[in-house]
Amino acid sequence: MAARTPFVAGNWKMNLLLADAVALAEGLMPLVASSAGVEIAVCPTYTTLHAVGKALAGSNIQLGAQNAYVKESGAYTGEISPRMLMDVGCSWTIIGHSERRHILGEDDAFLNEKTRFALASGLNVMFCIGELLEERKSGAMNAVLERQLTRGLDGLDAELARVVVAYEPVWAIGTGETATPDQAEEAHVFVRSVIASMFGEAAAAAIRIQYGGSVKPDNAAELISRENVDGFLVGGAALKADSFAAIVNACAQ
Ligand code: PEP
């Protein structure tokens, strides 16, 4: 197990109405209350953030958003600012999830702007990267990851300490197909080498790299045993308290 504190976050995506979201948070708290040596967050929908944040108050589970815009306020219909997210208790936001890159068309430059603005506003950022299946098959995986990192994290300096990179191969998200521990480790080693070339060896050694893509209770322990896997970003399995707690507890030390 690496010296970095593992970080396990649940991405609830566009799921759960208010009562179910609060019930999930309430069900999760006792299951992870004594999980030591692991950082935990959940990222509910905007409409449930406030209530889930209130339910989680005083617990060891942090609150995160799934996205954040690049302005503090104003005429940006449908958007939400980092400050608004912090106002309801968020300390984290996801930026660059593959569903936003590929379904909503967010590009590297926009994601860089979002990352910089979220960090400058005081949020911590889970910055997602990952290759498509055809990019992996054609041997372009490293070039894709390098492009996403160099463009997405361009211009950061000391704020990098508040960034976690989530490596999420797109072919493994929501498909039931998980990267093998060897595939995850290989990608994470590459990510760390890109971070080293951008920010230096110390920053590369310190940054946490989550794996995401069909993480389940039965594959979490083997994945987290790899030197460069520092936790998980979990989608489907985060929607059930017992499966998310089992993943958290696979990372507890
Ligand atoms: C995700 O959405 O970040 C994710 C990894 O989803 P899943 O765990 O369902 O593959």
Extended strand count: 8
What portion of residues is helical?
Answer: 40-55%
The chain-level structural class is alpha/beta
DSSP helical segment count: 11
Overall, the morphology is globular
Rg: 17 Å
What's the main sheet like?
Answer: 8 strands, parallel
End-to-end C-alpha gap: 9 Å
Low-confidence segments, given as residue ranges, are none
Beta-strand proportion: 15-25%
Bound molecules: phosphoenolpyruvate
**How do the helices and strands follow one another from N- to C-terminus?**
EHEHEHEHHEHHEHHEHEH
Physical arrangement of strands within the biggest beta sheet: 7-6-5-4-3-2-1-8
Looking at how many chains there are and whether they match, the oligomeric state comes to: single chain
Average residue pLDDT: 97
Describe the structure.
- The structure is a single chain.
- By secondary structure, this protein is of the alpha/beta class.
- Helix content is 44%, strand content 16%.
- It contains eleven helices and eight strands.
- An eight-stranded parallel sheet has the order 7-6-5-4-3-2-1-8.
- The longest helix is centred in the last third of the chain and has 19 residues, at 181-199.
- The model has no long low-confidence stretch (mean pLDDT 97).
- The structure holds phosphoenolpyruvate.
